[in-house]
Amino acid sequence: MAEINLIPQEAKKSEEFEKLKGKLTVVSIIILVLTAVGSIVTLAFFAYLVSQRDSLFSRVEEASTTVNSYKESEELIVVAKDKTSIASNILETRLDQVKIFTTLAQIIPKNVYFTDIKITSKDTQINGKAGTSADIAGLVSALTSSEGSSIVSNVSIGSLVSDETGAYTFALSATVN
Amino acid sequence: MNLPTAAAFSVKGNAEVSKVFNLAVPIGAIVASLFIIGLVIWPKINQILDLQTDNKQLVARAQNMEDKASILASLDKNKLEEQLASSEQLLPSDKNVFSILRQVELNAAQSGVLLNKVEAVAGTINEANSSSSPIAPTAAALPSADLTEDLAPKVQIKLSITSDYLALLKFLSSLYSFSRVVSIDGISLSAAFGESLQLRSSFTVDAYWKGLPYELGSIENPIEVLTASEEQLLQTVSRPESIQAPAVPAVAVGRNDLFTPF
Predict the structure, then answer these.
(1) CA-CA-CA-CA torsion for B227, B233, B234, B238, nearest 10 degrees?
(2) Which residues of B touch A83 (CB under 8 A)?
């Protein structure tokens, strides 16, 4: 009697198998279709990018030929620009001693004169004489004023010695702006 | 019901084989799809990513070159030649030592300054051009004062002069009016009290020069046009009030004795 019951079980198994096979077939078809579509899209996009690259190469080559046709102008502008920009930088950064002397002449007290001055690109040392201590104060005040600050900063007095007449010999240094 | 077992097994075995074959087709299709994804699509995607990067760079290169070509097309060649001549006045392509010496002598005479000593640190006169390498566009963008020396080579002329104060100012102003770019460094003044106040000064005049480049560099280097201030500077040089570099006069040649004083 046991064999009689085998038939429905087989049929049931067969039915389950058919279902599984059907599902697997559907999944495989979907994957196959997706793979096929993906392959076509990928290859098409790849081909598009390759053709785009080729056209870009020819665009670069064309621009390069155009630039080469203006080589003479390029030489002129490159040399002129190089020289002018360097000259411009030097002119902007060079120290204007005439301006320093002119400004000093305008701001120092009348009873002050200089015996020697040394100006480098970094600092200045000034030796001179002043009629009174008030004149020295006036000199320092002038050098630290807005006008004086346009030419020097960090003013320091190295020595300040008076003689029997009350005149002061001074030595001061400052940083050139 | 005595069924033959061998036949039953055979039927069952055939059914199993049939099942395996039935499943093998979809499984094989899935495996094939995975192979295609792994061996074709995935490498192509990587190639696509590389191509996209390359294309982006190519677009940038093409754009730069086209911009450069359009800038170059817009330039007036005659004006450029004039600007180059003016820039040559600013920074000559060789040292021009004797021209600057002549200029200093003439200006000293015109300013009423007595030249006590002129010492030129010229170095090699026929030195090769300074720019053996292609021009780098960044050279123009160096802003610091300390870099002045590195910007261009220079000829140094050390001067010791005697003059009154106003003549000295006039002489210094005339030096700064040279069309050639010069700077004055290490100026030292001391007063000499005599019948009239005289100043003894010594300083160094740095006269700059810049050799022509041997090559332009890469064709893809961007082109830099002159700024408004640079164009103005070039116009200033070509103005008549600017002191142009004088020609060194020709001298008589030929002697009988090499050692007789002149």
Answers:
(1) 160
(2) 87-88, 90-91, 210
C-alpha to C-alpha distance for B145 and B65, rounded to whole angstroms? 34
Q: Is the model's pTM score more than 0.90?
A: no
pLDDT value of position B139 = 42
Q: Above pLDDT 90, what percent of chain B? A: 45
* Same domain membership, residue A73 and residue A138: no
CA A9 to chain centre: 82
Q: Please give, rounded to a whole number of angstroms, the shortest distance from the CA of B256 to a CA of chain A.
A: 45
> What number is the average pLDDT over the span B113-132?
72
Domain of residue A158: give its range. 97-176
Q: Which amino acid is at A173?
A: S
The residue of chain B with its CA nearest to that of A116 is B190
B77 CB within 8 Å of a chain A CB: yes
Which range has the worst mean pLDDT, A38-52, A105-119, B135-149, B245-259? Answer: B135-149
Angstrom distances, CA of residue B159 to CA of A24, B119, B163, B198, B241:
100, 6, 12, 16, 24
Interchain pair B230, A84: CB under 8 A: yes
| pLDDT at res. B149 | 57
Residue B94 touches chain A, beta carbons under 8 Å = no
Kindly report, residue by residue over B87-99, the tens digit of the pLDDT.
999 999 988 888 8
Check CB contact under 8 Å for B80 and A96: no
Nearest to A77 among B66, B223, B234 (CB): B223
Q: Which of B82, B149, B257, B31 is nearest to A80 (CA)?
A: B82
Task: Using a CB–CB cutoff of 8 Å, tell me whether B3 touches chain A.
Answer: yes
CB of A82 within 8 A of CB of B210? Answer: yes
CATH, range B92-125+151-209: 3.30.70.60
What is the chain B residue with the closest CA to A177?
B145
Segments of chain A with pLDDT less than 70: 1-7
Which pLDDT value is given to residue A2? 54
Number of structural domains chain A divides into: 2
pLDDT, residue B8, reads: 54
Span B162-198, pLDDT tens digits: 999 999 999 999 999 888 999 999 999 998 877 778 8
B151/A contact by beta carbon, under 8 A: yes
Boundary residue ending a domain (A54, A78, A94): A94
Q: Which of B14, B34, B148 to mutate to test the interface with A (most CBs of A within 10 A)?
A: B148
